[in-house]
Specification:
The structure holds two protein chains of two kinds. By secondary structure, chain A is mostly helical. The radius of gyration of chain B is 23 Å and the shape is flat. Among the domains of chain B are: 114 residues, Heat Shock Protein 90 (2-Layer Sandwich), CATH 3.30.565.40; 76 residues, Actin, Chain A, domain 4, CATH 3.90.640. The chains are: A mainly alpha, B alpha+beta.
Amino acid sequence: MDTVQELVALIQTNQERFYRIAYTYVKNREDALDLVHDAVVKALQSCPALKNPAYMRTWFYRILINESLSFLRKRKNVLSWEEIPAQAAPDARQEEYIDLYAAIDKLPADLKTVVILRFFEDMKLEAIADITSANLNTAKSRLYRALKLLKLDMEVLDHD
Amino acid sequence: MIDRTNYDKIAIPENLDAVVGQAIDEGLSKRRRRTWGVWKKAGSIAAVLVLCTVSALNLSPAFASAACRLPVVGELCQVLLFREYHTEDEIKYVDVKIPRIAHTEQPDLESLVNQEIQRVVQDCIQESEARAKDYYDAFVSTGGDPAEFIPLGITIDYEIKYVSPECVSFVVFQRETRFSAYNCDLYYNLDLNSGEVITLKDLFGKDYRQIVANSIQDSIETWSEEERSILWEDLSIPDLISEDTDFYFNQDGQAVVVIGKYQAAYGAAGSLEFVIQPPAPVK
């Protein structure tokens, strides 16, 4: 199996994961699909640039996350109310989740990336550092900062 | 620490698979163009030489007939000539490469074969174009925005399997992107001395059906239990063999029978190929 075939297989087996990551950033179906689409096209086009196939997975995550972040940067100033999904009256337990997810959404993009990859994608800090092109200590401190912010945020919500 | 239930519950849109599939097609086709660009830039002498030869063959009949007397090039040029074109509109991209037989020193045969190839390829294209139009109409009539329709890609290409001074064997591929069920491969085997299309009967005599079926059966016997489980249970191999059965000659000049998708096995197996061994001589 050559690198390209390997990449196609990787994409096909993990497409749902990739969609969820993109969705977590943009919070809407169409944009998330667009992001996955663009990331796939970009990855296949630049596949020859990938020297070591062992890094294929992290490499693809990096492309997807960069796409997502640059999309968010472009959209920053045009976020409309319609994009915030209307929720049916949630039960108490679900409410807790929503608070947590809302808190994650409010994190700065670099901290959000670390949280998604660490807790939703179960990645090691080394891999996260690799994907975000940061060194291990930066990734670590981002994670702690994110957790601190989340905790504070949760506490504030609890007081309400 | 963080509950990921809700994350895992993010609904996956039905069309994710289609979107990813389309992206893969797009990425691969762009990549191909890219590698081509690199080739050109590198100015690989071999590539340029081959290109020159091919275009010179196509442009200059005088050069072509001279070149065909040379060894190696001479063998190749018999089906190296092709007509190539590209058209596109809002509903389809069409890339066509039609092979053309030439310089076999039998002009009648050449024009007969070329007309036949032309006719078959034309049928394929029309069929694909009609299908693209159907999809487009269905898309628009169900409220789709015409501007958002993803054009159907239609590709006709060919591959030379075997060339010798006596015969030439090649296959024409018809491919539609997005609908892999609509693939059609046309196999051609021509006897360059008589100008006849070679059939399995010509190769193996009047008992060809039994000979070919036996050889296929022998190949299947060597398969593992698991491999055999993909075959239809009520498969009757001799019924698959007729004078129209697809086959080609491999590089060793052996006949290889091609059994199309679904004909003998589940679709996942794709089409099956069997090298046919002639029966041992009876003593």
